[in-house]
Design goal:
The structure is a homodimer. The first copy, chain A, has about 300 residues and is α+β, with helices and mostly antiparallel strands. Chain A has nine helices and 14 strands.
Chain lengths: ~300, ~300
């Protein structure tokens, strides 16, 4: 019998991954999917699983989140993250937070320990100190690769937006646990050479993620401003509410975003019964999905490789 | 013949306005609606009109935005604002910005002068300096009334959330200009005695406002965290897309928000043909609407007073 639940799907960013980084990206998303799925199999919640998967992706320097984040115009790291719990619609977010190893965990603490949904910048840092989340030296979040790309984009005539889409993006995860609860988590270093204080789609509920036990969960990646203009995550769930599958709803929403605002992005999506999708209108998106003892993964259009899960 | 366009609707916050402030609130929203409508009648855009109306409400100390903003836990003023242009889905926002007289104008400048959609905290302040928006002393934004309420809520046993809903809120405006373009603007001092860095629904596209020439425009007010959990503004426009009137869509979305997360809020809404609504599930919301030479306004349930516009 096919066990649809639990299921977990992760992404490591939409864009055009350079060949030398493609294997690192694919290995990273496979590892994150395995780890999150193992938690689900041991009976832990969808929220636990998506936070665990995104924590691993943040810790992996191959991705633009946590260690490996892109640098802003001043060469600094400012990160955004969001979690949402489909049981209660509770959500937590941080925006433009600095010197935190795992913004996704801080976002979860905002959800659990405050009356608020989002804390930004220095206020988020003060909250982190108050709840005992250690501050890390900024240098520990910066890779040589990120610094080189930052420097290149300081040159006249450079185009950080295009460069961003040509490389790697935001990370995220969605899951349904054995009890049918859904959750999403998204984390990012944002846009390459962004202005100080720029906040993208990630910490914005309905844009950088959404989770509702009645509908499903979405985590997107791609051009944040385009994702926000169409509230991409909530849009996909509206299409699913109208009867579309996760894959069809994703394709329809991505096509709509392209038509209205010429945006490129990708998404991972689950429905409460365990249907899932990993779709993108960018050239590539590193993704992996774990369900029913199998690990699916891919990077280019139409790819769906499978491996057995131990 | 009935001229449906142009139309402008403003709100001055949902809650339970104390009697001594009720007339101030009603006079303020009437003045803002008149001013925004005058621009529309002179051929200016919906975006110009909503920014003008919200600027007046920010400058009016009777409202929780600009001068008159509520104070955070440290007695400081941190403000959020959003604008959205229904022609292009372009949007601009600022979050947790300090020492700015008119955050709504700064949000518009983010939309017009940057590649980004939202700037937060110190980054937003630096952008303001770069584009010549003057910094104002924080004292000029703080009223005696705001300081008294802040002090009262520092007492043990106080409940700032309840106190907030018992008083006054966020301000906002929606409009359709003579060419059928829609826009929204929202501005707020946020939640009374909030944590430093707390970001509410206002700067979050789809939550604190949405505008799309194909659907209409929404500006909400009320409990920000509840508004975010259901992406209230985008939800109302989905219901309108499915054929509901602005009023019915608003009532359905507010009822849904109450049922799912027990949230209290209010909204002003327009559709592209000039249909409009001002609806709330809180006890009161100060609102005013200008259309076809008439000014409508109200505060309590079912109120719809009219005055001729010169």
């Amino acid at each position: 019998m096919l066990a649809m639940l639990p299921v977990l799907v992760v992404h490591g960013g939409a864009g055009n991954v350079p060949r030398q980084r493609a294997e690192l990206s694919c290995a990273g998303v496979r590892e994150a999917a395995r780890a999150g799925y193992a938690l689900l199999r041991s009976g832990r919640s969808a929220m636990d699983a998506v936070v665990e998967a995104v924590t691993l992706l943040e810790n992996n320097p191959a991705f633009n989140a946590g260690c490996g984040s892109v640098l802003n115009e001043h060469g600094g790291v400012e990160m955004d993250a969001l979690v949402m719990d489909g049981r209660t619609l509770a959500s937590g977010a941080v925006s433009a937070v600095r010197r935190i190893a795992n913004p996704v965990q801080l976002a979860r603490l905002v959800m659990e320990k405050t009356q608020h949904l989002c804390l930004t910048a220095e206020g988020a840092s003060k909250f982190a100190r108050a709840v005992g989340v250690p501050e890390v030296p900024e240098e520990t979040l910066i890779t040589d690769y990120a610094r080189k790309r930052w420097q290149r984009n300081l040159q006249p005539g450079s185009n950080p937006v295009e460069c961003q889409m040509g490389k790697m993006g935001t990370v995220g995860a969605v899951a349904v646990d054995s009890e049918g609860n859904v959750a999403c988590a998204t984390s990012t270093g944002g846009m390459l050479n962004k202005m100080e204080g720029r906040v993208g789609d990630t910490p914005c509920v309905g844009c950088g993620g959404y989770a509702d036990n009645l509908l499903g969960a979405v985590s997107p990646t791609g051009h944040g401003e385009a994702i926000m203009k169409v509230t991409l995550s909530r849009l996909i769930l509206f299409y699913m509410e109208q009867g579309k599958t996760a894959a069809d709803a994703s394709d329809q929403a991505l096509a709509y975003m392209w038509e209205r605002v010429q945006g490129l992005a990708g998404v991972v999506v689950v429905d409460p019964r365990g249907g899932w999708a990993a779709r993108f209108n960018s050239l590539q998106m590193a993704w992996a999905a774990a369900q029913n003892g199998q690990l699916h993964y891919g990077l280019g259009k139409g790819e769906d490789f499978t491996l057995p899960l131990q």
